[in-house]
Predict the structure.
Amino acid sequence: MILHAIVSEATTAGWAARNGASVVQLRLKEVPTAERVRVGREVIASVGDLAMIVMNDDVAAAETLGVTVHLGQDDGGVERAARAGIRFGRSAGTPDEARRAETEGALYVGAGAVWSTPSKRDAGPPIGLDGLRAICRAVSIPVVAIGGVDASNAADCVAAGARGVAVIRAVTELPRLRALLEIAVADGGDGRAR
């Protein structure tokens, strides 16, 4: 079960790691790499070994910190990450993008936006559960659903084949989300594409 908590500072990162997040992704938009590295060091200290740490968009910061990086479709850096031995995740909104990410060597695919979300205004149109299901069936690497995911619909994402979910606004629901997803998996939604 993968539960990404997307955060912008260390206190929330540490809380998320202690309350069910298996991955903590640091997302700082429109700041220089040096600031991402500074905050990243605080996140590493706060999270410790409780969760995998991912830097959003910035390969240089991920390389400096020794963490995984998440790259969107429009983000460069896949080749640099591969050369540096940095594990990376990739965003995908279609099965073709997901297959390309897997071919590139992505550790996981962040699929979405599943539903519309104010957290990422530049996301394409929502892919819905059918789009998520198609992406899950297209690849063998883990698929993490993102975009409008919260406690009311996270289990639906797992039932569609996602191995987990990523949350930004719903980060305060992590303990409840973890419990709901564990029930969904126990009930047969094992996070594997059908």
User: Anything to note?
Assistant: Strands lie at 2-7, 23-26, 52-56, 68-71, 88-92, 109-112, 143-146, 164-167. The chain has eight helices and eight strands. The mean pLDDT is 93. Residues 68 and 87 are 5 Å apart (CA to CA).
